[in-house]
Write a structure and sequence with these properties.
The chain has helices spanning 4-29, 36-48, 50-67, 71-97, 108-138, 140-152, 154-174, 179-202, 209-234, 250-266, 268-271, and strands at 238-239, 242-243. The relative contact order is 0.13. 80% of the residues lie in helices and 1% in strands.
């Protein structure tokens, strides 16, 4: 019915739709929405982050080749360093160096919204690349299959990393006593989550079903965070940048300890090279 170029354009458009749906949903969770121009600019900065990442990928891959990694060691390096660290680092830099400096960044919910926006910007371009590449090389059916699979996995993973990155940046800004720790966790936490996801994909030692378990648990936690933040907005517990309510963070401490333990276990084989 459609020519090949028209079909490619439709597939490319379809690759962006899940991103826009998630971004719109998250934007509407904010009782006091951010200016659309700021959210859009944050989104496109996420898209632009692909440029420095692409420049650094050959460098990181070259280091991996020099280390002569094999088997699980190679999968670990590929997952946590080449993919996860590079991608999350530049999202983090945008949040810290741009978003957190804005006058509009004046309440904790903003960190979650901007975190998702920058992550989905990168995810949109990445998804477009995957879908268009599969369409050109393997045909429309292959592109459709990749589109459906990534809509429920990779895009969701990026948005969830943005939520948790934003959460800890929020903690750093609005809870001054642990600024450096929370700033570190705002990068370390999503790097671990993203790395675990990629490790499951790359390593033959893991069943792909673990992806859905990981994403399911993180999604439940993210929904809880948004609901909690919205209730705090409604109840008027925040005035500007002054926090009037202390969060009960025991669950976050437990989750962080578990994540760190998994990170060390996954990296056990890799660290023997050092």
């Amino acid at each position: 019915m459609f020519g090949s170029q028209t079909s490619l354009a439709l597939h490319s458009l379809a690759s962006i739709i899940p991103v826009l749906i998630i971004l719109f949903y998250v934007y509407k969770r904010d009782l006091f929405p951010e200016p659309p121009r700021i959210v859009i600019s944050t989104f496109f900065l996420g898209v632009a982050s692909i440029l420095p990442i692409q420049l650094l990928i050959p460098v990181v891959e070259g280091i991996g080749e020099n280390l002569n990694l094999q088997g699980e060691d190679y999968y670990y390096y590929l997952s946590f360093i080449r993919a996860s660290f590079l991608e999350e680092l530049f999202k983090w830099l945008i949040l810290v160096l741009y978003c957190s400096k804005l006058n509009e960044f004046d309440e904790p919910m903003d960190a979650l919204v901007y975190g998702v926006a920058v992550s989905l910007g990168f995810a949109a371009f990445e998804n477009y690349q995957y879908v268009s590449s599969y369409f050109i090389n393997d045909g429309a059916e292959a592109a459709k299959s990749v589109l459906i699979h990534r809509s429920y996995t990779a895009i969701l993973l990026h948005s969830l990393c943005g939520v948790f990155m934003g959460f800890y940046i929020r903690e750093a800004i609005f809870r001054k006593e642990n600024y450096k720790l929370n700033l570190f966790l705002s990068l370390f936490y999503p790097v671990c989550l993203h790395g675990f996801y990629d490790e499951i994909i790359f390593s033959p030692s893991f069943s792909s079903y673990w992806i859905y378990i990981l994403l399911g648990l993180l999604l439940i936690r993210a929904i809880y965070l948004f609901q909690k933040e919205r209730k705090l907005q409604i109840s008027g517990l925040f005035e500007g940048n002054i926090k009037k309510h202390n969060y009960i963070r025991n669950s976050e401490v437990i989750l962080m300890c578990c994540l760190t333990l998994l990170f060390l276990v996954f990296g056990l084989q890799f660290f023997k090279f050092f």
